[in-house]
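User: I'm writing a short report section on ligand binding and want a predicted complex to refer to. Could you take this sequence and coenzyme A and write out the structure as C-alpha cells? A short remark afterwards would be nice.
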Amino acid sequence: MYGFGELIDILKKSPKKIVLTEGTDPRILEASSRLLASNFLSPILIGNPKEVHKAAEESGFNIRGSEIIDPNNFPEMDRMIELFCEIRKNKGMTPEEAKKYVYQANYFGTMLVKMGYADALLGGATYSTADTVRPALQLIKTKPQNKIVSSCFILVRPSATGENEVLAMGDCSINIKPNVDELAEIAEETIHCARRFGIDPKVAFLSYSTLGSGAGKDVDKMREAAQKTKERCPDVPIEGEIQFDAAVSPRVAKKKCPESEVGGHANTFIFPDINAGNIGYKIAQRMGNFEAYGPILLGLNSPINDLSRGCTAAEVYSMAIITAALA
Ligand SMILES: CC(C)(COP(=O)(O)OP(=O)(O)OC[C@H]1O[C@@H](n2cnc3c(N)ncnc32)[C@H](O)[C@@H]1OP(=O)(O)O)[C@@H](O)C(=O)NCCC(=O)NCCS
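Assistant: Sure. The C-alpha cells for the complex follow:
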C-alpha cells in the first residue's frame, strides 16, 4: 500500500488545499494544527474566525496561519449563489431558496471546492454521512463516465512478517441496495482504488452461496454482477457468487471452488448491499485488528470524503492526506 510517506510525497510535489467543514470541532483543530506544521496540505476551516480561534485556544491547538472562511462574511457570496442556482436550475432553484443552503457549512464548503478555492473536502465529524455526501452528489456530481457515486474502504493490518495486509471493500457506505449494473460499477471503481493502494486485486462478489450451492434472487444478482465485471475488467481475477470463507481460506476454497483463481486469496470484496458492507468492514476493523481508511468516495468529479462521527484526530489527519493525495 502507499505508506503515508508516499502519499505525503505526492502532496509535496503538488501541495493542495482541503476544506474541513467543522471548524470548531477539537478533532478537526488538532488535525489542522498538524497539517499547518507541514508544507504539503493547507486546511481551510469553515466557521466564524473568532469562534474557531476560541475553540482552538480552549482545546490547546495552535492553528496560527490557518485560512478560516465564514459563510456570513464571504466576499464572493453573490457569485456563489448565482453558481448554485445555475447548477440546480433543473430543480427551479431561486436565489432566495439557494440562500437556505449556501450558509450551511456542508453546502458552503462544497461550493468552495466547486469554485476552485480548494482541491478537496473532508466533513462528517459532526454531520451524518447523508448530510456530507448529499451536497457533493448535487453540486460536484458524478463523473461523466460514471452512473453512480459509490465508496470503498481500504483496510490495513500489520503482519508479523512486517508486510502490511491490505484489503479493499465496497460499497459499505453509500448505495443502499445496488442492482447488478451498479454492483459492476462499484466493483470497477473499487478495483481502481485498490490498485492505487498497491493491491493486486483478486475480487470476490460475496454471497451466502458459492457457485450455485444456494439459490435465490440475491445469489443471482451477485453472479450476474461478477459476470458483468469480468466483461468490464477482463484482466482482473474475479469470482462470484462466493461465500466469505471460500474467498479467504485456501482450505475451504479447495472444497467449495477448487478451480477458482480467486478462492482462498481474495483481497477485494464486493458486498451485496450496504447492510452487509457496513457490518462487514466494521467486523474486520473492531475484531480483526484492521485499520479502516474511508469511506473513500468513488466516481465524483472532485475528491470529497466523509468521516465517521466517532473519528479521532489521527483519523481526520490520515483521511485529509488520503483525500487530497488521491485528487
Ligand atoms: C447517498 C445518500 C445520502 C443519498 O440520499 P438522498 O439525498 O436522500 O438521496 P436523493 O434520492 O434525495 O438524492 C439526492 C441527489 O443525489 C443524487 N444521488 C443519490 N444517490 C446517488 C448516488 N449513489 N450516486 C450519484 N448520485 C446520487 C440524486 O440523483 C439526487 O440528485 P438531484 O438532487 O440532482 O436530483 C443515501 O443513499 C444514503 O443515505 N445512503 C446511506 C448513507 C449512510 O447512512 N451510510 C452509512 C454510514 S457510513
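A remark for your report: The chain has 13 helices and eleven strands. The radius of gyration is 21 Å.
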